[in-house]
Predict the structure.
Amino acid sequence: MREVRRKSKVPRRNHLRRAHFSASKRVDYILLGVVLLVAAVLRFWRFPELPFMHDELSALYRTQFDSFSAMVQGGIYPDSHPSGVQVFLYYWVKLVGMSEFWVKLPFALMGLASVYLTFLIGKLWYSRRAGLMAAAVFAASQFTVFYSQLARPYASGLFFVLLFAVAWTKMVFGKRKPSIWLCVAFALTAALTALAHNFSTATAGLVFLTGLFFLPKERRLHYWLSGIGAVAVYSPNIPVFYHQLFEYGSIGGWLSTPKPTFLTDFLQYTMNYSSLFMFAAGVVIVLPLIYGHWQKGRNAMRIMSVVWFLIVFGVAYAYSLLKEPILQYSTMIFVYPFLLVTFFSLFKNRSLNSTTTIVAVAALLFAGAESLVIDRRHYDLMYEQGFDGIAKSIKNDKDTLADLHSVTWSDNTFMSEFYQKPNGIANTYVLGRYNDITDMNSAICGDTSQFLCFGWTDYADPRYDVMAAAAYPYKICEKTWFSSHYMTLSRQPYGDAITAFHQLNGEPYHVDGEWAGSYIIKGDTLDANTDLFGVAADMVFADAASNCQVVIEVKDAATDSLLYWCAAASNDTLRNSGRNIIASAFRFRDIGINPHDAVIKTYIWNAGLNVADVSKIGYYGAVYDPRITALNDPLH
């Protein structure tokens, strides 16, 4: 009887544990469904209204070739990315056209799928709960939402990196012998990862090399054959990579040098610069320690993830300092999920009860979504960009101002006209990368309209704004979007327009000597948030001028020591004799000086001893608007 009773207790106890485990597992997968639903809402909210940004329009511009070979030569070789996404877009737009919805859709879907893959990697490496918590943070981070909404290599590269990591995990650590299908998946996902982005290529390479330290002997043949297969699929891109790196000589260069605080800035960005989101994540991370149930093993996986992250960061940072800047937040997106799941790696499947797990996931989703929508104003900033915003503003101004001259600047005319043409905007003076300051001078000085609207995207030369204000000194309105700006100006006082250009000379004067027109502007008379500052001289030259410069000296208000100096010469501006505007300009944020700590001196250095008449000389200052960088930087 005793034996019967003992035997009867064992299955009863196991049955209860299995029931508890099954209920806990069911709760986790319901929560995963909620995480995916929230992720979908955040990525697809008003999705058809999402306009294209600069990088997307640049890629679409490079699909406009009559043949595939022409597209490779003109659209891929001069770029800084592998060929995969550009080839896809070349055929995709032929199928669906250039509708924002259809062009962006595959990338948004891959971004959404990456939320699930983050969960899956956390589950495979640590536990189901680790993957769930990481997926919740991943779902609500502006970092991942933003790049899921762009038709660029980031969402696709991330998706394939994570797919490859899943295949790699099963290849190296799986209980079963690798099947032919696993080997094919390993090779294809590795190759597609490498074809998306150079840093997804680097991440795939790190993952592959790491596998050599854990790989059982009996799987080496499968592993190496799969790796060779991946290289074979990738091999058509090798000439592209060689050309971009060694012949074209650049895979970046348009960025600024990264700050020493890059890593801490990046981690804050991934948490939406939100104290609440960071606090919620920090509390959830340590819950297994608080409850006394934490994952004590898996240190090799933790070290591996951190090492991958630091290697990618270190290589990009060193390259940025030693050769040319390439490091930006998007560079880190391919290794970010591995670091994220490691943050939650203390979780075991039973670290928390179901109620606490529900509260933890809800807290992460709420803090992330609240900071994304309210604090970061993601949907206000993302759903009206410079290209479409400028086009709408020009149309509105043309409808209300009769005698209007319009000028725009962007990387190329295709990008400017993409939204201007559908809005019925014609006769706009469109400037692009192949134009220079002389073309802006012609656009401004060669027109006699009463009003001017001027818009730029992606940081036009700051002298452009100063020249526009010098010719049309009264500002009716201005608008700012991410990396874009627009203003409407008047030649004469108009309504509530403010004086934007502050004239320094009382009367016109004649110049024929080496020096003329010296003026002092006290920095404390400027707004403390002034960013763009410039001086312009409206001059009439008797002959084609040479070496006549407007000089700006920025000095320390306390010590009178020179802090910064810049000058613009007539050689940069003039096409011929007659009226020309010569301007010098800079940004206080670029030179790291508070305007209230400075005294500004400006003068004309007529080194070429030109004969000219100065009708006016003055300065223009524009206050920094945080929206200009708000999709990456704090909004304050």
